[in-house]
Structures are given as C-alpha cells and as structure tokens.
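**User:** Everyone, produce a chain:

**Assistant:**
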Amino acid sequence: MNHAQNFATPPETMTRLPTGQCVDAVKSTGHGGGHSRWEPVLGLLPLRSPRVLGGLTDGMRAHWLVRGMHPCDVTVVRRNTFPQTNLLVFRLQRGTWAVLVKHPRNERAADGLAREWEVLQQLAADDRLDPWRQLLPQPVGYRPDGPARMLAQGWLAGVPADHLVPHRPQDLQRTVTAALSFLAELRLASGHRQSAAERADDWAEPQLQILSTEIGWCRTGTGAQGLEALRRRLDEGLAGAVLTEAWTHGDFHPGNVLLNEDRTRVTGVYDWGNARTDGPSEIDACAFVLTVRQALSGRPLGRLVADVLRAGGLPAADRALLASAAVDPDGGDPAVLPLLTWLWHVAGNVQKSPQFGRSHWWVAHTVVPVLEEASRWANARR
C-alpha cells in the first residue's frame, strides 16, 4: 500500500483481490450466455441514455461511497468513452495526494474492475517497467464486495490526448509521435519476437468467440458467415506473421493517454483492464493510429477498417507512422494487423459493455462493414 491509501481509505476497507476471483481478459464473463427476448428492442436504444440529474446524483453517490474516510475533496470525472457509462469515476484529493476511484454500476462493470485490479498488480510487480513507473496507475486499494465496491488507483496528471486530436491539429504530429514512442519503448523492454502462428489460438480465437457470444448478428446467417470468413483470413495471415509478444494495453486510444503541456511526452496511460503481459503488442500502435484517424474523419472505426481491407492495407501515411515506431505494417498480409487490432477493440468493448453488442447502430457501423469485407475476400478465393 502506498501513502495515497493512508490518507484516503482505512486499511480494512480496501483489500487485495481474493484468489480465484479474477476474470480472464479474453473469455466471456458468462453474462451474455442467456439471450433475452428483449434484445431486438434493446438494440434500438442509444448506447448512452440521458441521465436526468446525473451530475448531482453521481456526486451524491461518490460522497456516500467514501463516507467514514478521512476528509478529502471529491470530484466526479467525466469520460466520453461509452464503457465508462457503466462506471462512476471520481477523484479523491487531500493536499497534494490524489487517487482515482472507480465504482461499478452493474455486474459486468464489477467483473471488469476485478480484472483491472489484477492487471494493476501485475504492472506494479514487473521490474521491467520501472523506467515508466510514474506513467502507470499504481494499485491503491480494492473493495470487491457489497454496494460500496470500488477500485482505487494512483492519480495520473497530464493533458488528455483525445482533447488535442480534433481541436489542436498543430499538435497532432507531436501527439502521435509521443504516444507511438512510448509504445515502442514498452515493447522493447517487455517483449520478444514471436511467430504469430504459434499464438493464433490465444490472440484471435478467444476474441472471435466473444463476438459470437455477445453480438446477436454474429451468431446466425450473414453475420456468422462473415465471422467464419474473418477467422479464415486471420488464420492464413497470422500463419506468416511475426509479432512482438509483450505488454499489450488492449485499448490504447487517445482517450486513455495523457501528455505533458508541450505534447512531446506521455505522462500517463489509464484503463489497463484489457491489458495482458503476452499480447500482440503492435496492435496498440495500430489502434492509436486508427482511432486518431477516426477522430479526425468522424467515421466509425468499422468503416475505416473495411476501407483498409478493400485497399489491401493501411494508407501510406499511417504505414509511415507505424514504421517510424518500429512496427512493420506490411509484413505478410498487410490486412492482418488492422484486422487483429479491430478484433481486440470490438471484443474488449462488447465484453465490458453488453449494450454495444445489442446496439443496431453500433453493430451496423463497427462490425458489419468489416465482416462483409471478410466475406467478399473469402468468396473471391473460392
């Protein structure tokens, strides 16, 4: 325990994760097993419904959660990413010390926090990451049970990169370069080159299973055919690919990255709940490049990846950015890296937030275009 916990929480209220309670990052949590008769209706609802008096009730809830703790300032943190609507996130501050607290609104979010606590402890225990220790959220405390369950982690300071991408185009090059440089250093320190064929059962198949479980459209008809075509393309592409097995964040987009004031250096990276020590780490760099392009263009990620498949690879500018960060965008099948990146992104979202898989709009713009292109590829090879 660090000093942050001593001012914010009595030791008995924040405990370590009990053995056996961790959730596997790439396997279904079980909540999606029973498919409700209401799914077609739920799919018409917006991903994020308006919450009347949400700011007031969130503040009251946050104060209730920390009742009985040492006096400190409580500030609700607003996040624009949809999975965060399943979490109440707030900052506790007393003097110069601060922690970020996450409270789950439902069981799926609680499962995600269990996994995130496990990852935070793994990050803290990995000596290879010592040069970047100040950039990583430190595990402060975890309360897994009861109505006041929560996870507390060290507060990270910096300018959110997602605010810079659309509003500060003059800083875009520095923002992307800083993020990709951080990833290159992390990959070099924690990884080794690995034949992707030997890891396909772990790097692709569990994520494909999540799509089948969580997205109704992927279970039958055209969707199921597209998913099988995607499996074939990934199997063939990964058979000839070499990637770096290393620490992989799994959700490395501008909303999770903090920068210093002059946008030249990463000062923090949040939301490690999808991370693992042995992932295909190049997907983080590809995810950042793709989500920056998404923010600039306003187009859904699925349509951008479908364009990549039709064109036979990433745009030249994106390939140059990746190459500058020691990522080979064209090795083997140039569609494999963006496809694998998209797969991890989609699987991570639907696992954390089932409303994604139920949303007709989200599936139509994020999932359908990619699986349709995968089917066209498969049909052309017959």
